[in-house]
Amino acid sequence: MNPTALTVHQKSRVLDIAFDDGREFSLPFEYLRVFSPSAQVRGHGQGQEVLQVGKREVGITGVEPVGNYAIQPTFSDGHNTGLYSWDYLYKLGSEQATLWADYLARLQAAGFEGDSGRAPGAVLAGGATAAKGCGHNH
After folding, report:
1. Which of 65, 75, 79, 81 could make an S-S bridge to 38, C-beta 3.0–4.6 Å?
2. Measuring CA to CA, how many Å separate 55 from each of 66, 68, 110?
3. How far apart are the first and last CA of the chain?
4. Rounded to whole angstroms, how far apart are CA atoms 122 and 42?
């Protein structure tokens, strides 16, 4: 799988990526940051993942290409050790709804419910949107 287009939208904090199979994904910076493939986030094996919190406002200050197979973004919180291969970005796009729901459940279980800025209503893969509202009375 190879990308045919990659656009960083600073204002909306979304990375748009299109692949040569015709699929296109909009990946929020927060989503990319909390699913960084770095050892700092993923740990060194199953069950060693470090839950990332407080990333709702994270930006991307730069993106470096790594060969012809990956990008290495620098996030506004200083994190820059994640190498996002095309395959990994494709996985993040195609499994976005499931992965994001799991992340929100882990935030809630750890007592950080509402810590994310991309709760239900965020744009999901394929342009679909999750149910509107966050379940709280404002």
Report:
1. 81
2. 24, 28, 15
3. 43
4. 24
